């Protein structure tokens, strides 16, 4: 196994796992890592294979953490109206992204996947996250499973903003939930629940679009990236709720601003891969 390839796979997997569930934009970070750090593979088909399959590591991480709770909710569906309301709410929140993402997939990939757009979105999103973290409305919802159905739907539409790379899926849902009265912990936890169908849907769509060109010639490299994404995703999901309950989201907002500003400086200086 090529050591350079192996290290690249591990770093990209860690990028994916850590940034997927933080309000910092995993897509934006991966795109900038490819642009400015050369963290991509020379073979375009293998790049696609790797990008698709390491997502699965992050998906399995969050499902693993919430597995027992998901089973409990599923078993309660026949007799518990709260469990039914929550399940319908998650599906309703997922629906806008499924429809709009499917319709605009070509435009998003072809036009919006641009380092300049990513950097601007990182900075603007960081500033918004700072303001909302400090001045969000008084929290009236403290449990992600008991939001009103209309609130779940509105959060789903907020999530669609993350189709702009650099916005962040978790960032959009967290900000949307907090603006509607969720406390920081509940907002972050619902972003986890909504991540499951959203990420699974995106993974299935990418797999369907690219399965003919999937390249498994370096299965060991893919396995390393998958494992790195899984382990780092586990660490984030298990630690984020405790952290944001005590400290809020300011550190992630400043990180976004720093990365976005550094990317803009690099773009205007002509730095990076062609």
Features:
single chain, 274 residues, mainly alpha, 10 helices, 78% helix, globular, transmembrane, cell wall biogenesis/degradation, UppP, EC 3.6.1.27, Undecaprenyl-diphosphatase
Please characterize this protein's 3D structure.
The chain has 10 helices and no strands. It is mainly α and 274 residues long. It has one domain (3-268). α5 (115-135) runs parallel beside α7 and α7 runs antiparallel to α8 (184-210). The longest helix has 33 residues, at 44-76. The radius of gyration is 18 Å and the shape is globular.
Short description:
78% of the residues lie in helices and 0% in strands.
Please compute the radius of gyration using only Cα atoms.
Answer: 18 Å
Structural class: mainly alpha
Question: Helix share of residues?
Answer: over 70%
Mean of pLDDT = 89
Helix-strand pattern: HHHHHHHHHH
The beta-strand count equals 0
The largest sheet is:
none
The CA-CA distance between the termini, in Å, is 27 Å
List unreliable stretches of 5+ residues.
none
Domain count, please report it: 1
- Overall geometry comes to globular
The number of helical runs is 10
- Beta percentage is under 5%
Helices and strands in order, then pairings?
Elements: H1 3-20, H2 26-37, H3 44-76, H4 81-112, H5 115-135, H6 149-159, H7 169-179, H8 184-210, H9 219-247, H10 250-268
Helix pairs in contact: 1-2, 1-3, 1-9, 2-5, 3-8, 3-9, 4-6, 4-8, 5-7, 5-10, 6-7, 7-8, 8-9
